[in-house]
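From the shared-data thread, chain only:
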Amino acid sequence: MNRLFKHILLIFALAATVQSTIAQTNSYFLHTVTKGQGLYSISRMYGVTEADIIALNPGSEVVIKAGEQLRIPQVKKAQETTSTTTAATVNDSERFHTIKVGETLYRLTVMYGLSAREICSANPGLSAENFKVGQVIIIPQKKEEPATTTPKITEPAPQVAEETQPEAKKPKCRTEHLVKRKESIYRISRMYGITEQELVNANPELRERKMKTGEVLCIPYPHTEQEVITPVKPKPEPIVVIPTDEDLFAESKGEGKQIEQIKAAVILPLMLADSISSEQMKMVEFYEGVLLALDSLKKQGVSVDLHIYDSGNKWASIVPILKKPEMRSMNIIIGPAYETHITEAAAFADTTGIRLVIPFARQVDEVFTNPYIYQVNTPQSYFYSEVYDHFFMQFPHPNVIFFDSPEEKDDNMVAGFKRELNDRGMPYTVLLADTATNKDTILTVLDTERQNILMMTSEKAGGLNHMMPVFQLTKRDTAATKFDIHLFGYPQYQVYTNNHLSSFYEIDTYFYSSFYTNNLLPEAKEFHQKYRRTYSKEIVNRYPKYAILGFDIAYYFLKALHLYGTDMENRLGEMQYAPLQTGFKFERVNNWGGFINRKVFFVHFSDDYKLQTIDFD
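Structure, as C-alpha cells:
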C-alpha cells in the first residue's frame, strides 16, 4: 500500500512538472537576433521592457550578438481587464509565435482557428520565401466568427461492381487549362470555382500520378451543372487536399493595382510666418527639392496631386492637418520632422493604411510595430552594423590605430567597432591625439603585413585638424616602404573636403555614409544649375544637402508608386534609380513592422587622386 501511494505521488509530481514546463513555454517565445538589433529595438518590437528581456536572458545586458536566441516574455496585446478573465479570452488575444520545424502556414491556420488571410494581414512581411524556422510572426486576435481554413475533404468518384456499373460519361469540359510551373490542384480548382475532386474526376489520370507542367486539363462545369451519377458502393476513402504555403500566400496577398494619379502630402515645419532660422532653411530647401522631383516626374508622364502642410513648431499638434478630409485619400505622406508629430502621423497611418515616409529622425520607435512606415535615416545600431560589415569587406586584415582626443569620449560607433574587432580576434592600438603623438610614435605601431587604418575617435573637426599634418608626414615618410596606410572617417568628413581635400587624397581616405553627392558628376552639376535657375540661390553646403535629399526621396517613392502601384512594398527591390545623394535599401524590421533604410556606402579619396563611391550591394 505504501509502495502504491509512492507510485501515485510520483505520477502526480511528473504531471505537475509537465504542466509547469508547458506554462513556462507558453509564457515566452524565441527571438533570433539579427544584424543591428539591440535590446532597445527588440523591446520596442515586442512591447516589453529591456528589463523583461534581461530577466529571461541573464548576461544580455552586457552584449547580444547576431544569431543568438533570446527568450521574450509573451505579452498579449489584448490585456485582461479583470481578474476573472477566462483562459479562452486570453488565448484569443493577439500574441507572438516562433515558427518551428515542420510547421506550415496551413498548420498554423488549423492550430489557431484563423484563415491564411488573417495571418498574412497581420504579417505583411511574411511570404512563402521567408516562412522558415525561427521567424517570429503575430497571431492576430481571433474574431467571433473566424473564417477558418480546414482541409478540403471530397468524395472520389463512386465505383460499382464490374458487372453492374453503368458506363460513366466523362464530364464535358467547360474549358481547358494549360498547367504552369508551381500550380497545384488546389490553386487551379480555386481559379475556376470548382472542387478539387471535380477537377480530379474530369481528369482521372491525376488519381495515379502527379500533375505535370505543360499538360492540358479539362475544366468541368461546377457540380450543380453536371450530370449527376448515382453513387454505388463500395465507397472509397475520401481524398484530403491540403493547400501548400505557396497556394495560401498567393490567395491571401491578392493582386496589386495601378495608381492613375498619385496623391501625396508633405508635412514640414516650414513656419514661414516666423523669422527664418537655420532649421527652417533646411525644411524650405527640402521642399524645393520635392518640387524639382515632381517637375522631373511630370516630364516622364507621372501624375501627382501634391498637398503641402506647415506643421508649425514642435509644441504644436498636426492632428488638425490629419483631420482634413483630403488626407484619407492620400497614397503617401512625406514628413513630419518632430517626434510628437511623428507619433501623431504614425497613428494616422496605422489607422488608414497610408504609407508614411520619415525623412529626418533617426529614432522612430513606431517603425517596429507599424507596417506603413519607411524610415529613411537608419537607426544607429543598424547603421553601424552595416558599417562594420562593409569595413571588413574592404579591409580583411586591418591594423586599426585609434587616436583619442583627451577631452572627448568614444562615441557609440567607435565603442561598437572596438567590440567588433575583439570578437574577430583583431588587436588594435589606441594613441592620444595630442602634441606628444608624432609620426615617429605612429611608425612604431605600423604593420607591414596588414592594412594600417588611422581613425580618429571623434567626428569633430578639431581633432582631425590637429592630426592631419602628422598623418601626412607619416604617409610621406613611409612612401618608399611596404606600409599600406589609410585614413578611415565619418560622414561629416564630406563637409571638411573644402579644407582637407588634397590631404584626403594624399592619405588615401575612406569615410562611410548613407548620404553623399559628388559635385563633379554631370548629374550633380545639372541639379545644382537647375536649382540655381529655379530659386536664384545656391544649395547650402551641409550634410546632407536638404534640397537633394528632398529630390531623392520624392522621386524614389513617387516613381515606385507609379511603377508598382499598391504592390510597391513587394517590388522595391526591382526599383532602378541612381540617387544624386541618398542611398536606398529598405528592409522590413520584422514581419509586422515597417521598413528601415540600411544603405551604407564608402567614399574613397585615393592616393592616385581618384574619387569613387564604393557600393557593397
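The chain is about 35% helix and 15% strand.
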